[in-house]
Amino acid sequence: MNPVTADMTVPDLLRNVVDTIHPLDHTFLLDKVDDDWQSISYKEAYDKINAVSAYLLAIGIQKGDRVAFLLDNSPDYLYFDQGLQQIGAINVSVYPTLPAHEIEYILNDSGAKVILVGTPFLFKKLISVSNNCENLTRIIANFPNYDDLLKKTNLRAGVMSFDQLLDQGNGLYPDYKRNILACTEAILSSDISTLIYTSGTTGTPKGVMLTHSNLVNNVRVCLDQIPVIDETDRFLSFLPLSHVFERTATYHVAMAVGCQIAFAQSLELLAKNMEEVKPTILNCVPRLLERIHDKAMKGGTEGGGTKAKIFNWALENGRKYRLKKEAGKTPNPVLSLKYKLAEKLVFSKIKAKTGGRLKFLISGGGALPRNIGEFFGDLGIKVLEGFGLTETSPVVAVTEYHRQVYGTVGRVVPGIKIGIQNIDTLEIYTEQSYESFHPDFECPEGEIIVSGHCVMKGYWKKPEETANVIDANGWFHTGDIGRFYKGNLQITDRLKNMLVNAFGKNIYPTPVENVYLKSRKIDALFLVGDKKEYITAIIIPSAEGLREVFGVNEAFFNKDDDFIRDQEIIDWIDEDIKRLSNELAKFERIRSFALKRNPFSIESGELTPTLKAKRRVVEKKYAEEIAKLYLTH
Questions:
Q1: How remote is the C-alpha of 36 from its chain's centroid?
Q2: AMP-dependent synthetase/ligase domain location, by residue (predicted)?
């Protein structure tokens, strides 16, 4: 039975777990310290949560005050967040990768009074702008020896360590225990729980106001849609908790049900951590799954011979077995036997690298190429896809556990409506809900609009911008283009990404990019072609591929020229561009391209914190190189 009710607040989720699901001495969190994974009980976590609450109340933090985070995922993030949530303060999580001037903007716009900072590097970035943040009175350093970084600085805000905060808070807790309880009980579901800043691909960062009701109801309907999550599950958290996807789909979901949460050490150590903690559920982004796919394919087919034949045989029988099961049919004994052999010889070895216990993966934050989803399905690893935005808390659709339609992001979750609106006439083609689902339903393509409990309260201190995205009828306009296919939502692209060529043809970049991303030689690409006669692209070649095939070293990637001019490398990429172009309409095909030496980055302003390319920034920054692409044909 779903443990979450619609009237709960965020701190109620954890309180309900310790009241009804787990004794206080059960393991709640797993954190790697030095070489060992340490178990943290509910009691240990609650003691620190209460210490945070007592300290914040003692320094005057009240309901509605904003408290900021600038740190990576860790148990301390959870302690600090739950500590402020249960006194009614508001979480302002800042992406650790943002440049200092954007951190300054967010702290000033939100009026944050206190900030928890995770590392010396982030601390130095913060103190370079902290004196410009007039509301900031307290900086909490989540590492020792921060004094060494304060030499020759004259900060207005006071600085202390998180350990000092916990020590003081523990001493204060007996006197503040009743106050904390009273604060928790005074929180309304309509109160703001968090401000999550999103800049999109253009414009100034906007603080998305998400209420306790937004977040709790998103957890509730996700559990309704995926009822197989229970208190025996273990999540591995590695996507940033400063993003709403990880906050809801890992942190809040796990906390609501009583699952364990293990915190990955870093993206670089994720594969190692997966083998160590053996998660049953992992939330991830498409790029991670693409990399796992690429490594598995390379490992299975490299060198040819018997090994490659067995690998390809296993995948082919995995595909046949999956298709039978998805059609509701029972595979015949011969196919079942072949599948068992494929599992033993190939699939089990790939699964072992994920820890061997995965119940399913959830992919979000971008479109998962259909062939990647099918690949994991052939292996017997279930990948559920979801869709949503920061402004929708985030999930508005997610794959049902028992019904997979590859290339879609699933069924509408309960309690909301999704409409598809013609972008020219504004006619709403259809309004779909959980109850209206039909497995054969399809509709034309248009802008995806959403209404219901998931839609944000608005943008912080930006009523005009709020009115621009939430219309008079309560529809939130996502800016995403999509349709319904077999009853499930299918994303085509972003409205702002749409290219209209010189002949009036509409081209959505994402599906075109996904075709070219089938090449293992290509890591990323950025299509250009608005108001042009043909499509060109800036392509980021696979660094691993360049090292293997051409023997390049670090000096190659550190050259001053942003672009690769070596004709041999250009020809190597062009082989796959020509081959894959046959899968596209002529007006969608790349006619010319430039090879960028290094990936786009957040630090350079080319990507948003959710790793989407800022089209205007990229086109302006590389205008000279793009212009050359239209002189070569």
A1: 27
A2: 22-460
Written as six digits, the tokens of 94 are 């800042």
Which amino acid, one-letter code, is at 372? I
* Burial (CB count <10 Å: 0-12, 13-18, 19+), residue 154: exposed
- What pLDDT is recorded for position 524? 92
Question: DSSP characters for 570-589?
Answer: HHHHHHHHHHHHTTS-GGGS
**What residues contact residue 378 under an 8 Å CB cut-off, 6+ apart?**
315, 318, 319, 321, 322
How many CA atoms within 13 Å lie on the side-chain side of 210? 30
pLDDT of residue 222: 96
d(CA 165, CA 156): 19
CA distance 582 to 589: 8
For residue 274, with 0-12 CB atoms within 10 Å meaning exposed, 13-18 middle and 19 or more buried, which class applies? buried
Rg (CA), the chain: 25
Q: Which domains, ranges and CATH numbers included, belong to the chain?
A: 10-187+226-280 (3.40.50.12780), 498-629 (3.30.300.30)
Integer CA distances (angstroms), 222 to 28, 177, 194, 217, in order? 21, 33, 19, 8
The answer to whether 388 and 217 are in contact (CB under 8 A) is: no
User: CA-CA distances (angstroms) from residue 525 to 522, 581, 593?
Assistant: 8, 14, 10
- Rounded Cα distance between 510 and 492, Å, is 7
pLDDT digits (tens, 9 = 90+) for 490-507: 998 877 777 878 777 778
Q: What is the pLDDT of residues 94-109, one digit of tens each?
A: 999 888 988 999 999 9
- Can you state the angle between helices 10-20 and 42-58, rounded to 10 degrees? 140
Pair of tokens at residue 560: 């001053």
**Cα maximum dimension of the chain:** 76
Nearest Cα residue to 522 out of 534, 514, 511: 514
For the chain of 633 residues, list the mean pLDDT of each consecutive stretch of 10.
95 97 97 96 98 98 98 97 98 91 95 98 96 97 93 92 98 98 98 89 80 98 96 96 95 98 94 97 91 90 91 97 93 97 96 95 87 95 95 96 92 97 93 97 96 97 95 95 96 79 79 90 93 92 94 94 95 96 90 95 82 85 93 68
- The span from the CA of 516 to the CA of 535, in Å, is 13
Query: What pLDDT, on a 0 to 100 scale, did the predictor assign at position 632?
Result: 60
Measure the CA–CA gap between 370 and 131, rounded to whole angstroms: 49
pLDDT at 202: 47
Q: Specify whether the CB–CB gap between 501 and 528 falls below 8 A.
A: no
Task: Count how many Cα atoms sit within 13 Å of the Cα of residue 350 in the half-sphere of its side chain.
Answer: 26
Distance (Å, whole) CA 243 – CA 361? 18
* Contact call for residues 237 and 32 (beta carbons, < 8 A): no
Question: Which three-class secondary structure state does DSSP give residue 284?
Answer: strand
